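Late entry, written up from scratch paper. The run itself happened at the end of the previous shift, but nothing got recorded in the book at the time, so transcribing now.
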Amino acid sequence: MHPVLLQTNYFTINTFWVFFIFAILTATFLLIKFAPKQGLKINFFSQNFWKFFLVAFLGARIGGIIENYHTYFSTFQLNDLMQVFFLWDKGYNIWIGVICFIVYLFWKCKKTEQSFLKWLDLLAPILVVTFGIIALGSFFDGTAYGNETSLPWGVNFESPAIKYTVPIHPSQIYSFLYSGLLVIAIFLFQDSKKFNQLNFNGLLGLSTISIYSILKFLEECTRGDDTWTILGIRISQIFFPLLAIISGVFIFLLYNKRTKKPQKKSN
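Output as recorded:
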């Protein structure tokens, strides 16, 4: 655990934010590199970048405030309420931000006659890369940590912010590893003959979402940090299986739509 990368008398550089910024820069590089290869107009994204960013940022911030309402609204004194504007406090819910971004992207694509499914095919793997890098930042920051384990790779975090004093699952490392393996598998799948036979808009993006959701659910089973729960079940343990199922249903519907298209008769 190494939450502070550099500290001086004048400023502090938090390790998590370094990884977060690196993740965003990596995602931007991949987007610029691969969008033209997929026949997508990078101008569409660059012209709307700040809108996409603000929608995702505000969604993540509002989600984080709601999730940690006891921190921001423990009292109704002005000093406590002002914490809502302390944007550097890591009070964000990244999944709410991603959902807001995807919804806005869908609306924007529909409005400008862009192919939402083609953008999803490009962005889903890039988001997986982003989540993997951010997970490393969380490991050094001591957030998104696991529950106790007797496995030999269990780790100890010496921090009052972590409720365990025994070895715990390095859930953040799990996330980094399966994110990386999934991205490698995606690129290998793209080059396979089977993919070229099945390929249709949305297949890659929805498959990535479905598989990632299953892996994320398995990771969530090892998590020990506090979050929203329903009847003692983490909301994420409900959300990700549902997301995997919904993605699978859309793949099935799109595949059926593709196979039922009438074939052009040759003269």
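The chain has a mean pLDDT of 86.
(Scratch paper discarded after transcription.)
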